[in-house]
Amino acid sequence: MESKYITLSFFIFFLHFITLSNSKSIVKNLPGFDGDLPFTLETGYIGVGEGEEVQVFYYFVESERNPSEDPLLLYLTGGPGTSGLYPFLYQIGPLSFNFENSWKNNITLELNPNSWSKAANVILIDLPVGVGFSYAKTWEASRSSDSIVALQSNEFLRKWLAENPRFVSNPLYISGISYMGIIVPKVALEIYNDNERGNKPQLNIKGCLIVSPLTDKFIDFNSRIEAAHRLALISDDIYKATKETCHGKYIHNDPENILCANNLERVDECTNRINFSNILEPLCDETNMKPTCRVTFFLKCEAANIFVDAWTNNKDVQKALNVREGIIDKWEYTNTSIRYYLDKEDTIYYSYNVFSSIADHQQLLAKDCQVLIICGDHDMTFPYVGTEKWITSLNLSIESQWEPWFVRKQVAGYQMTYAQSRYSLKFTTIKGAGHSVALYKPEEAFVMMDRWLASHTYSSSSL
């Protein structure tokens, strides 16, 4: 243990003297991709916090349509603890793995036809500190929390725009997925308030876009029982008995309520072998997958984790991305010491100190703010049922009733729009999608995002 702290002390001492020049660069080529990148990719570090002791690594992709006018999205990756490089390579970014022609020692990349950069300028960042290639220069700065991530995201964005002033006037949306539903509204609110205080630069914030959000740690986890009933995973009698005996509270329930506990056991028997990320997919152990799980989708999931780990830890890749040498011992796509799950206690690295972002959403009602919430209708991680409940709690007027929306003349999902004064909120589901919506239904996720941005920020003849 003592040697571990000596090593940490030496590492922190080393960071104080590392050269911080060339903090950003344009990436022209990447190992695994044949030829020059047909899009503009910038990577680099932005220092935030006292003395810029936290160095945030980012990936910025210019819009492939009209970068000078298209919206700017700051995209926060879920977990918390997952690197921005993961969605860059496997969900919404301009590149993806060529699974048919890759293996661990020879990974090839191909273009993603549904990259969000085809409609917007996108910044993906490695936050909290300790995720991806981001790092802290002191032990104190290496500790983070929900509220700190919100403050650092705002500071990062302001400093990045100060270095890239040509994007200051672009419509700005704070976006993210999963756990970042706790943080995205808080970041947006910070920016609105900073603008009202006259802070410079004045950011052209228009709203936020959140995918499969965790919004309230009681409502969203508690909604899993109702969602399981709607999805026919538990019967009417099990649901009715559980609801009555638990009084509608399925988490943090009274341990002396034996009837509730017994019914929750019945629910668990029905759902503990269900894949909560998408109930249509088999539940597989990705580290020791059985032959029955080696269907195409799970082969890709398994391969993606192996490929992104091997590719990113390649020294040539890190050099191409302009990563500072000697900072990260081993890159991991998820920092498991930070990642949250139900009832997880604070760690020495991270404090989960925001229980609900509903209050932030309520404050956004007074702003000129547009919000898009996208949910997969087969997601049991944070089911759409919980999203409906917290949206209802905002007491908004209904602008357009529940209705289907279409891609290629087929029903892609359902949508409903709420409004109050200058504020609007669109809630949409994507049919058949799970938690990582763009992974399961990439075209539908892109089309919804593109249409919604177009309706607020520019007209598009392509829709």
TrEMBL record:
Coiled coil: which residue ranges?
A: none
User: What are its GO biological-process terms?
Assistant: proteolysis; secondary metabolic process
Superkingdom field = Eukaryota
List UniProt keywords, sorted A-Z: Signal
| Signal sequence segment | 1-23
| Record-linked Pfam families | Peptidase_S10 (PF00450)
What's a Gene Ontology MF term here? acyltransferase activity, transferring groups other than amino-acyl groups
Recorded hits in PANTHER family, A to Z, give: PEPTIDASE S10, SERINE CARBOXYPEPTIDASE, ALPHA_BETA HYDROLASE FOLD PROTEIN-RELATED, SERINE PROTEASE FAMILY S10 SERINE CARBOXYPEPTIDASE
What family is this protein classified in?
Answer: Belongs to the peptidase S10 family.
> What is the name of this protein?
Peptidase S10, serine carboxypeptidase, Alpha/Beta hydrolase fold protein
Organism of origin? Centaurea solstitialis
